[in-house]
Specification:
CATH superfamily of the largest domain: Response regulator
Low-confidence stretches: 186-190
Distance between the termini: 52 Å
Number of strands: 5
CATH architecture of the largest domain: 3-Layer(aba) Sandwich
Structural class: alpha/beta
Number of domains: 2
Number of helices: 7
Mean pLDDT: 79
CATH topology of the largest domain: Rossmann fold
CATH class of the largest domain: Alpha Beta
Amino acid sequence: MLVCLVDDDPRLLDALGQIVTDLGHKATPALTIRALGDALSTGVDAVVIDIQAKSERIDLVLAARQARPDMRLIATSRSGQIRPQGVRDIARALGADAILINPNLASEVERALQPDAAPEKTPMTAQNCRARARELFEAAVFEDDEATRERYLTAGEEWMRRWRVWSETCVYHADDDGLILPSPQRPSATPPYRFG
């Protein structure tokens, strides 16, 4: 990951740059507005910016972020003149993805550089497992493609097995089978089962 570091103090840039490098990333310090412009034009993956940086630097970073929404924006304050809650409020106003209250801690820097985790998935209950099996079996009945029909049947059998052995310790999720079922478009009369 290429990380641009924006701060007015070269000593602080060096210290943070060393932490970022030790974590296996490449650090690009931006002490001047020109250095910041050059760094942003190279397509950095993340920017760590002091919320007390000069306004033109903040404006430049925000413009780059608007052009590239996937670029992570991490706000920090090293001066100690702003309380942590104040740092959080300013960071939220900037639309930061993460906040470094103590950028001297490698663990906090590492956590801030990680992309947001996927939303936590809700585990399936026994009833959910049985319902998923029924959906797959029903889709198989109406599926014309033999290979797809077989995938639905195999996945349905697996959900039935999970239903039979389900316990509180089981952790199954709805997308475990990796199948997306078609929208139900069922005829008014159920056709006979087809084999072969």
